[in-house]
Structures are given as structure tokens and as C-alpha cells.
Amino acid sequence: MALGTPAARPTARLLAASVLRYGLLFPAPGCLAVNKAANNPSSSPPEKSRPRTPRRTFTSTPTRRQEKPPQPQSVDTSSVSPTSDTTNKSLFTYDTQEPFYDTTKYDSLPRSFGTNQYMDINEDLRRSLRQLLWQFKAPIRYAFAYGSGVFSQGTSSKEKPMIDLIFGITYTQHWHSLNLTEHRDHYSFLGKLGSGAVAKVQDGFGAGVYFNTYVEVNGMMIKYGVVNLDTFCRDLTDWETLYLAGRMHKPVKILRDEARVRLANQANLLSALRVALLLLPEEFTEQQLYHTIAGISYLGDPRMNLFTENPHKVANIVSNQLPNFRRLYSPLVETLPNLVFKNDPEVNAPKDTILLQDMDVVRRGNMVRRLPKVFRKKLYFQYQRKWQIPQLEYEKLVGTSEEQEMMEGRQGGEFEQRIAADMENIRKEVKTVIKGTINWPSTSQSFKGFFTTGFVKTWKYLGEKIKKWKSAKKSPEAK
Fold it and tell me: Positions of the region Disordered (predicted)?
């Protein structure tokens, strides 16, 4: 077996369970029409002859135990072993609510799964970015581009913005060994110490990402970060640092896809939606929802409190990418039983589209229970301290093992419902956990940049950030 190619593993049952639960997550009915309307406000509504999906209401939405599993036709049956018993019974019992994300067991996914993550960009830019990847002989399993160089953020500049990229790789030291041989000039002085030192700096400090900045490839100025796929998927499913998971809350352009990451990111997007609902009131606009989601990763970012980041960045990202946010999250909104559109999103702009969430403590308690594992434990600890719950009683309330959770399902219990009922303080506590999750990894990652990027490039990068900050302060939005 070639180095860099993990062995195939059995996937049928957990794969089909995840696809069934996560709803056949291709764009929901009407989503494409929504995107067209967002891009062209003057366009006419869909023709009357076209069947339209009725809007859901809380009363028409069955409870979880009444829900029927989605139709199985979207499961890629070619990936299911013919000897399995999946043809005779459901692969997923809704009493357990949702699957556990063991993303190491995924080699492939149905083509229709997670297509809400795919964004359209300028075709010439897309080709250029794809060709750019071929300049790296070291194996890149997953790659995406993000930032103002790919998606407009409403700012204008005479200079072409730098393209931001993330590369997901399998073996850290091996990858850097190959890349150092081919592209030694991409690295700072750390490259002289060899791939072992580079790998230790990447995996041992900060958020597990190694950035090479101000690199010119095919006439394009790029900054690329390298991350191990295991680290990447853990952050997406568990929110260990929210460093990369937070970036994926916003639209990104996937250049090279990988099944594990696509599955993990679908869980990440759903988690972002749930956290946003905990931060929002009962009624809110679609644009407020996207603004809340996009702002999660900036809550604890120290750069937002300094003069190195545009203070209007979140608003700029959302207002200039509304069609992409709709494509990313509309299918997920359709899967949640406690969230409905109050008016028709097909004929209303996001700022006028109203959503309504069910504030019932049972449903919100279930939502708390289904937050990312590491993030959820931090939130539990906040409330354990606040309510001064003894350790033994606390363990009985929340459970002590994943095995117990798998047997009992991810239903919110007394403790989660009590958290959900704390309407006055839950927003504050959730924000505290977000800040605590992001602050240290983001700070240490920034310090790591002095060594991975080099002092000259780092000061140049900071200078450009300060320049953008000053420009933003002078903009009309700041007045």
C-alpha cells in the first residue's frame, strides 16, 4: 500500500446512519430558487405551476419519537455490503437521536451528501486555484480556499488580495519532508531544522496548523496552512479549538474534497446553527442568524480587540455573501424540528425573512445535549460551578461515558433542561465558553507565526492588517 493511503475500513452502517439522520443534506426544495432570488432581487417569484413545499410549523413537525426516517433512496447503496442486514431494517433508530461521529471509518460518501458545502466562484479563479494545487507534489488530501481573495467582503483595494488556503494532509512529518525538498523557499528558518522540527511545531503548539505566508505560486500570492486530517476532523466534530471549525462556519471554496472532512464539517455546521439558536431570541431574521453564526469564531479572537482586524469584518462577510450563507445553512434549517420560517424565504430577502424557534425547554435541552463534545463539557462545567453541584451528583446528571450515552441516546435530561430554562444567563455562559475555547489557541497560533512565517514576513503581514483596520475605521460604517 502506498504511503499516505490509509487502509479501507468498514463503513456501511455508520455511513448510512449519518446520511439518513443528516437529512440527505443536499439543497432543500426551494433552496436554488432562494439563491437565484438573492442574487437577483428583481427576479419574479417561481411560476405558480411549479409545486412548492409548504412551510413547516411547530404543530406540523412531529416529535423525534414520532418522526419517520427520511426515505432511503439517497443512500448510496453501492457503498453498502450486500451481505449486511440493511435491506430488511432501518440502519438508524431515531430513539438514539443521532449518530456518533467516528470519522475515521469513512472512505466514501454518496455524491449528494453535503453538497450544500460547495460554493460557486469565478470560473477563471477556480481553474487557477485547482492548477495551483498541482504545483505541490506532496499529497494533499483536502484543500479549501477562503477569505477576501476568494469571496468579496465589500472592501476595495488596488492590490490583489492574498489567497488564503488550508491543506489537509495525512502524515505531518512525511508531508513536510517532501515539501521541503521541493519548496524550501516557502519556509522560514525553521525549515533548516528539518521536517521533524517543523512537524513538532505544527502539531505541538497552537491549533495544529503550520502557515507559510507570502508564497508566490503560478503568479498568485498565497498563504497556505497545513493541518493533519485527524486534528482537523476533531476540531470540526468536537470544537477543541474552533480555529479551523470557525473558519468553516463561513462559506469556503472546496478545491479537493475528502469524505471524512465533508462528514465532519456537516456536523460542524449543524453545531454552529444550534449554538446560534441558543444565542438568539425566539424570533429573528435570517440575516441575524447568519451574522450570529459568522461571529462565533471572532468572539474570543484577540485580534478583534487589537488594531489588526477590521471591526466590521463579520458584517461585511455576511452582507456580501448572503446567497452562499443561504446555500450553506438552508438545508440544515429544514432538518431541525424546532426551527421554522415564519414567512416565505423564496420571495423575501434575508433581512426580511423571519425565523421562529421553539423555546420549549425539552427541545432546547436536547439541543444542549447535542452540542460538540468538548464544547458541551465546558458548558456543563460552567453551570456546575455556577450552581455548585457536587461531583458525584454532577456525574449522575450528565453521564460519565460515551458508551452510556450511546445506549441511552443523546436526549437532554434534567440537567440540560435546567440549562435551557436559564434564559437570562445562557447567552452569557455560551459566549464565555466560546471565548475560552478560542482565546488561547488563537493567541498561541499568532505567536507561532513569528517562527513559522519569519519575522520579516510577519511584520509585513501585521502592517497590512493595521492598514486595513485604519481604512475600516474611516469607512462610513464606523461613523
Answer: 36-92
- Give me the amino acid identity at 422: D
Placement of cell 464544547 in the chain? 375
**Cα-to-chain-centroid distance, residue 27:** 17
Contact (CB, 8 A) for 314 and 294: yes
Pairwise CA distance, residues 277 & 292, whole Å: 9
pLDDT in tens, 91-124: 223 233 344 455 566 667 788 899 999 999 999 9
Query: Among 103, 183, 95, 190, which Cα is nearest to 138's?
Result: 183
Give the three-state DSSP class for 213. Answer: strand
23, 94 Cβ separation under 8 angstroms: no
Q: Are 471 and 230 in contact (CB under 8 A)?
A: no
Helix ranges, 143-285 (H): 172-182, 195-204, 229-238, 243-247, 259-279
Tell me how far apart the 2 most distant CA atoms of the chain are, in Å. 68
Q: Which single residue is written with the C-alpha cell 455548585?
A: 388
SS3 of 449-462: the string is HHHHCCHHHHHHHH
What is the pTM for the complete model shown? 0.77
Closest CA to 166 of 262, 247, 267: 247
The answer to whether the beta carbons of residues 350 and 287 sit under 8 Å apart is: yes
Q: Per the structure block, which three cell numbers stand in for 269? A: 455546521
Owner of C-alpha cell 475515521: 104
Supply the Cα-derived Rg of the chain in whole angstroms: 23
One-letter amino acid identity for 21? R
Burial of 436 (0-12, 13-18, 19+ CB in 10 A): middle
3-state secondary structure of 225: strand
Spatial distance between the Cα atoms of 308 and 305, rounded to a whole number of angstroms: 8
Distance (Å) of CA 336 to CA 63, 256, 293, 366: 11, 29, 16, 12
The CA-atom distances, in angstroms, between 430 and each of 214, 297, 312, 442 are 36, 13, 22, 18
* Of the candidates 445, 289, 269, 444, the residue with the CA atom closest to the CA atom of residue 372: 269
Pairwise CA distance, residues 192 & 90, whole Å:
56
- Helix 313-320 / helix 322-335 crossing angle, nearest 10 deg: 80
